[in-house]
Design brief:
The protein is mostly beta strands. It has one domain (about 30-175): Calycin beta-barrel core domain (Lipocalin), CATH 2.40.128.20. Helices cover about 10% and strands about 60% of the residues.
């Protein structure tokens, strides 16, 4: 194959791997406003799956969330299927019309998020304890607001670019 057609095929193939941009969801409803959705009490149910699809951990989360101006706090209480518990407190800051930063004790540096339409895209590195060791893993975290206060969350975990697994969560805002 001549070089120019080969380069074109390669460019098209790589462009197809570029991924989705959060702004692709700008017309989707219901519109997600973090300050109103994550304000009050929420419940969530989730699981972690290895890259082969095996479910290795299930959990429930109770969230107490509040906002004051451009600053929010999400106090998350995790209860895992193996009986262990964990608490994560997110401190969020709105830095633009659709952009947010987040910090938590087990997050390395700062999480960055962007909202568009019904979607939120977060990226961050988390200190993940496994069998007495702590690993820093990257999360590519997508949340999609649905009707009736339900949010679907899918996070892909990677380390050095290699996929470790996924976390799937369903949130429900309490009435």
């Amino acid at each position: 194959m001549p070089l120019k057609p080969l380069l074109l095929v390669s460019a098209v193939t790589l462009a197809g791997c570029a991924g989705v941009d959060v702004t692709d969801y700008r017309a989707e409803q219901p519109e997600l406003k973090l300050e109103s959705y994550f304000n009050g009490k929420l419940d969530a149910w989730g699981m972690f799956q290895k890259r082969n699809g095996e479910v290795v951990k299930r959990f429930r989360v109770e969230i107490d969330a509040r906002w004051e101006g451009d600053k929010g706090v999400l106090d998350e209480q995790f209860r895992y299927s193996d009986g262990t518990t964990q608490r994560r407190v997110w401190h969020l800051v709105k830095i633009g019309e659709e952009r947010y930063l987040g910090e938590a004790e087990d997050v390395v540096g700062v999480a960055e998020g962007e909202v568009s339409g019904n979607a939120l895209h977060w990226t961050y590195t988390l200190k993940l304890p496994v069998d007495g060791k702590v690993y820093e893993v990257t999360f590519d975290d997508w949340m999609y607001l649905q009707e009736d206060g339900v949010m679907i969350n899918r996070s892909v975990m990677t380390k050095f670019g290699f996929r470790l697994g996924e976390v799937i969560l369903f949130f429900r805002k309490r009435s």
